[in-house]
Design brief:
Blueprint (H helix, E strand, L loop, with lengths): L4 H17 L34 H29 L5 H22 L7 H25 L5 H8 L2 H9 L8 H17 L9 H20 L10 H20 L10 H28 L2 H4 L2 H17 L5 H19 L6
Helix pairs in contact: 1-10, 2-10, 2-12, 3-4, 3-9, 3-10, 4-8, 4-9, 5-8, 6-8, 7-13, 9-10
Length: 344
């Protein structure tokens, strides 16, 4: 199930407009509620929502659709990335993916009348894009040359743990239900990879840890940096991060072995449209609307989706230990969702 792109753009724009036009909410105040819900003083007349403004129910629905987008789409990108790497070098392939997606989204928004980012906003987008796409995505791509896939999955699954720790810098701390969900979900990831190879070089393991922490820091810090309004923030982040990945690939002297095969081009197109334009934009929406533990819970759900897709599409068998892992992962994600509550 994919998040409707036009709906996502409207919700991005509404959320940014509300943020720029309202006073900061204090901790514990009713105005700190997520999901666009509004409160009013007793006896005050009810004010109808502005056109395009998300109401409580629609905001809950939009959050659910955004979660499904990052859960399912990013869970399905494992196979697409594998196909892309058959025809593209790692850094250049990732860089082309995000740079092309960023150009498409930027031009689309500008044609619709969205303002161009100013200098401070470009700076914020460069920081977030660098941490998420270069440090996070690029670090994982590079480290997988030295570690087994099981180790990569385990270390990437620490992203939610890193996120809640970094959130503490800005005064947020996960609730008990969120802590329980994070721990139970991580146990599920461990169970899911018990049968896989867990070999890794020290360099590869360290790079993976830095990549996971980089993605988590960028996710949390993005809530406190000056960024462009609405979906333009995702466009600027992809432009900055994609450009940096291409430069990194050139500095690393990556070369094409030959013309990319058709399957690699199709896979790259899938990653550009669904993995970046839809899912990355949905992730940006989540970072503005929900707590870090919930926004980064995709790290638990993605291996689950990949396993289920493998069973459904490729006829792969799910073992007993993998079935137990699915129960742990689903329970962990459910606990995180139940503990989402209000922004603090």
């Amino acid at each position: 199930m994919n998040l409707p792109f036009s709906r996502l753009l409207r919700l991005h724009a509404t959320e940014r407009a509300e943020a720029s036009g309202s006073q900061p909410a204090t901790a514990g105040s009713e105005s700190a509620q997520p999901d666009g819900a509004q409160t009013r003083s007793p006896g005050a007349p009810e004010v109808p929502p502005r056109p395009g403004q998300a109401t409580g129910k629609s905001a809950w629905l939009s959050t659910g659709l955004a979660l499904l987008a990052v859960y399912i789409i990013w869970g399905s990108t494992y196979l697409a990335i594998r196909e892309v790497l058959k025809g593209f070098p790692p850094f250049l392939g990732a860089g082309f993916r995000f740079l092309i997606a960023g150009v498409i989204l930027y031009l689309f928004l500008r044609l619709r009348g969205a303002p161009a980012p100013n200098r401070r906003q470009w700076g914020g987008a460069a920081i977030v894009g660098g941490l998420l796409l270069v440090g996070g995505n690029g670090g994982v791509v590079f480290a997988e040359q030295y570690v087994a896939s099981g180790v990569a999955a385990l270390i990437v699954a620490t992203v939610p743990l890193w996120a809640v720790l970094f959130a503490r810098i800005w005064g947020r701390w996960p609730r008990r239900a969120e802590w329980a969900g994070l721990i139970v979900g991580f146990v599920g990831i461990v169970l899911l990879n018990l049968g896989g190879g867990l070999s890794a070089t020290p360099v590869g393991a360290v790079i993976l840890l830095l990549a996971a922490s980089s993605w988590a820091l960028g996710s949390v810090w993005s809530q406190h940096l000056p960024l462009p309004s609405g979906a333009m923030s995702s466009a600027a982040e992809m432009l900055a991060g994609g450009s940096a990945l291409v430069l990194l690939g050139l500095a690393h002297q990556e070369r094409f072995a030959g013309p990319p095969p058709a399957v690699s081009l199709w896979a790259l197109g899938y990653l550009i449209v669904f993995g970046s334009l839809v899912a990355f934009s949905a992730y940006g929406y989540l970072l503005k609307r929900v707590r870090p533990a919930l926004a980064t819970s995709y790290a638990y759900a993605n291996p689950l989706v990949a396993l289920l897709l493998g069973a459904a599409l490729a006829g792969e068998q799910i073992t007993g230990i993998e079935g137990l892992a699915l129960v742990f992962i689903l329970t962990g994600v459910a606990l995180v969702i139940l503990g989402r509550g209000k922004h603090k």
